[in-house]
Amino acid sequence: MKSKRRWDSAAAASSSSLNPSLSLLPSVGGDVDRLTELPDVLRLYILSLLPIKSAIRTSVLSSRWRNMWRLRWPQPSLLDISAPSSISQSEFVTAVDDFLRRRGCARLDYLQVVFSPSSRHMTDLKRWLDYAASCSVSDLNLDLSPVPPSADTSGVSRRRRSRAASVAAPALDFNCESSSLTRLNLRGFHLTSLPPSFKKLAHSLEILSLCEIYLSYASLRRILSNCPFLRSLTIRRCPDLKKVIVPSSALRLTRLTVVDCRKASEISVSSLGLLSFRFSGALLKNYHIESGAALEDMYISSGGAVPAMPRGDWVKPFGELANLKILTLCSLALEYIAALSSRADSGFRWLPKLVELQLLMLMMAQSNLSDIYSFFKYCPCPRLEKLFIELPVSACDPSMEMYLEVPMEDPPGIGFDNLRILKLNGFKGHRNEVQLAGDLLKKSCILEHLVAVIPMGNAGENFESTANMQKYLSMQLHLLPKASSKAHIIVTECDDLQFRPTHSQV
Question: Where in this chain does the record put each F-box domain (predicted)?
Answer without folding.
Answer: 35-70
